[in-house]
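Progress narrative, work stream C.
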Amino acid sequence: MKNNNKKKNNKKRKESDFEICAKTLACFTEKKLLEEEKNKEILLLGKKLFYSFIKEEIDKQNEERIKLRKTQLNFQKFQNPFYKLLLCSNCDKICYSKRNLKCDLNGKIALVTGGRIKAGFECCLKLLRNGATVYLTTRFANDAALRFVTQNDFHIWKNRLNIYGEMDFRDLKKVEMFCDYLVQVKLKKLDILINNANQKVSFQNEFENDYDISNFQNEIQILLKDYKTNFKKFVENSFTKQENESQYEIKLISNENENENQNQNQNQNENQNENQNQNQNKNKNQNQNQFENQNENDDKLIIQEENGEELIEIKKKDIINNLNNQVIISSVHEITTSSLLEAHAINTLAPFIFIKKLKRLMNSQDQANYIINVSTKEGKFYEQKVNEKTPHINMSKASLNMIIKTSAEDYEKSKIYMNCVDPSCLIKKKEIGKQTGIGFDYIESCNRILDPIFIGINTGVNYFGRYFKNYQSVSW
């Protein structure tokens, strides 16, 4: 009996302890819930106040941006007709002021390489409309002339524009000849040099006309007159004078094969001497016809596979429409030696030759002269992210920057102010499935290229040895 009573008392104690625990737990949870509800109310109230404040600020900014576009750009909607990126009001003001910036360039002479399309074309137009005389180099003279002829104000500045075609900067001999022509024959001074030409795709100079220039033949002849007459004669004379000399000869021979090439050249020279007289006559005829066949030819974009067998030819019209979507994308092991040499010839060696040979025309103690190298962020060492699929182009752009960084101080002693400019977002790129669109139009890119020149002429403040991006000097 005693054992049974003890079991009952134990059961009652356990039940009472359980009830006490349940009650305490219930009280604790109630308090917790009440505290959480209060905290939630406080959080909700804070969020409402925060979002209302942010909304007010955003509305204010939107109103300012809309007013800015209504007053300056005559646009009713919240959008920018010039830039596809949304810019803050301060950036809009800067870009718009630079867009309308003018400069007295009367009497100034400018040379722009790669001035047929895009930012180079806009640079030529802006220089012409501000009074400068412009010399333009391009591979495709007829197409370049056609673009300028169709401008509404062509009649105002047509006598101040000279176009020189078939200027393929892979042919460094032609680049040196053109510089010699400017120094010896054509110009007495040069005020502005813009190295804008750059390599993105590979071309061949075998073309076939697929555009109609019959309606503008007289106007185009005006722009190409000096190129087809005086420059042609100069080149013919240079070929005949330098046929057996090495002034314009540029050789690229690897060290590994140098000894083998020397032995082969000794044997070849004996045979070449026998055929030299025959080849001289052929070379003369070829050089004469080289400049006369432009109207019979047009550009073809050549896309070559690694094995070198398959070629895809695209006519010039397709190039004009599709060039924005084309970019050379390769890893180091995929890049051919010829592509490497072409990138450096066009992006680095040709600008170097222009800077070196034309200094004689730019030496002046009376006024400032300007050299602009158009570069990209891929040529910067302090850029955190660069395109890893274009190492050969990145190398050439870094070399282009180094020309300015190294020699700007020396050229400044002759009042020649050299700078690099990143015009920002010049082309569309399709890269590893990702597509980045154009941030600015080419007029905006042109404004960024010419800004150091316009500031120097308008204010007298001349910068040199700097890398400009977004109208500001940034690190190399």
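Work stream C, second folded protein:
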Amino acid sequence: MIYINMAINALPDPEDSDEDPDEGRMNFLGSLLQSDFEVGESAIKSPVELRDNFDEIAASCLDLDGVVTLRRFSEDERKRMKEEYISATEDRLRETALDSLRDQIHFPADLRILINLVGALCGPKLPIFQTWSGCAFWNEVYEFMSGHQPIAEWARERVGPLDDVRSNCHLGTPPCENWEIGAGWQIAYGNERWFYVVYARKTAPTCSNCGPPQENVISEHETGVWKWRYVMNEVADVASFSTIIEFLGWYKSFREDDISDHPEFGPSSVFDSCF
């Protein structure tokens, strides 16, 4: 409500006398919340209307924290687009995988479930914070639904050569010599951090780089097992996870402390930069 009240109290720019003040206020809130309040049968015309009917409007226009749904597409259209993306990505992953693994490569089952539930997984806090400091893990559907390129063609382009993935995706801190990547792709990037989904195994529990077993080093009984893993690389840090559930437990507060402690992310600074 802080930002809604700010928009209500904002004075119009005298030089923009032709602009409806409420239109400018709603544009600010739409940018802040990544929501098009003009979509649907009952468009929201003013921040006062949004404030007074917030619970009802939120259910139809806004998403849960950290996720996005493109409501301008019907549920059937969204489902079709996602299936096209998954199928094309899976085909391209098989083409780029190690020859010995191609028959094993299927789109990660738990990632498929996530994709069918949301249009984007963009991290904690308001969308404007995510743009400045975050990194969306899953925004593929959001991007291709918003574009004009055929989905299958677009999805295939997102899966680069395996050598590139193996060179740039690091598992373990420092990078462990015993990880072997057999397939994968860079699923997202932003603000000097990158997310990968890789089909990988560890050929030994530890190596000369990583020393004794630690957080990023798998246990002895998992050695040699090929499975999908979700990896975040920063310039000086790595986080890797064996399941989407493990990843989400970490991602729900990803960069949240950095955002909360930074003065430029305060309400007044956000308002000044957007309005």
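The chain has two domains: 2-62, 75-260. No further action is required on this item.
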